Amino acid sequence: MLTAYAQLAASMIMVGANVAVAKHLADALPIVLILGLRCLITSAVLLPLMLWRDGAIRPAPRVLLNFLLQALFGTVLYNVALLTGLRLTTALQGGLVLATIPAVVALGSAIWLRERITARGWASVVLASVGMAAVVLARSPGGEGGSVLGSAFIFLAVCGEAAYVLLAKRSVGALPLLSASFWMQAFSALLILPAWIPVAGAASRLADPALLALLIFHALTSSLLAVLLWYGGLRRAPAGTAGVFTAFLPATAAVTAILFLGEEPTPAHGLGFLLLLASMILATWPSRSPH
User: Cα-atom radius of gyration of the chain, to the nearest Å?
Assistant: First the structure.
């Protein structure tokens, strides 16, 4: 079980660290170019792995439609909104707003899947709302901070990720992990293709080896390794317990923003993080089974 917990923690640490990486890339390259190249790199890695492990599986049309929708919300909307928001706000603030994902998923489950929200679930939603408000209103000691518009874009990314999670519930087990990941990335590349080809000339900036290495790192960690580690951990750890490890996402995003981007935290950031952490724990902590 410790191995499973280590996989889950490593997955969320990678996702959290990529908030700072994504901000750096968004400052240097067009957003659609980052996303398009990321999807192509990941697809190129996944294709031979899929053929080797899973063979040439022909998914049913309804399964492909579900993966197309997952790509639209979970890859395109999530990343475009996230990268746009990170151009307007700090990586620290962006990472903390992402901590609202479990609460938004809970609300989405109630509205779309007609699942009942418990009192603990409603408490999680309230804490997430108050915590995000504290983060949005936070300002650095010099009076600067993330913008409300930037936080709004990142919250739109949260909604996209929540839609992806809810859609994924309908396709669990439909395809092996590598095949499912490949179709997600392939559809994502197809959807973003018309937008990034006109700005493809900006790829000349990738002649900078450091920027190219950062893009490859971003693609392989956020779109490939993080997913494989997460599902690897889920094979042995209960889903409810696994959800608690999402706390590593905003924590890692905050640490990397402070250490590597020089962003300054404030008491409001600290209060927001504590409220969001409590919200995540309430939303994801496994319920006790009746005796």
Answer: 19
Q: Which tokens belong to 280?
A: 């995540």
Q: In 3D, which of 149, 174, 143 has the Cα closest to residue 88?
A: 149
Do residues 36 and 196 make contact, with C-beta atoms less than 8 angstroms apart?
yes
Angle at 69 between CA 93 and CA 218, to 5 degrees: 45
Tokens representing 138 are 């936070």
Instruction: State the residue for tokens 């067009």.
Output: 30
How wide is the angle at C-alpha 64 spanned by C-alphas 101 and 53, nearest 5°? 90
Count of residues in the chain: 291
**For 89-108, what is each residue's pLDDT tens digit?**
888 888 778 877 777 877 87
What pTM was computed for the model? 0.78
Helix (H) or strand (E) holding 232: helix 226-234
Non-local (6+) Cβ contacts of 143 within 8 A are: none
What token pair was written down for 201?
A: 């000339």
The token pair at 22 is: 């994504």
Amino acid at 154: I
Here the contacts of 58-65 (C-beta below 8 Å, separation 24 or greater) are 59/174, 59/175, 59/179, 59/183, 60/174, 63/171, 63/174, 63/175, 64/183
What is the end-to-end Cα distance of the chain in Å, rounded?
24
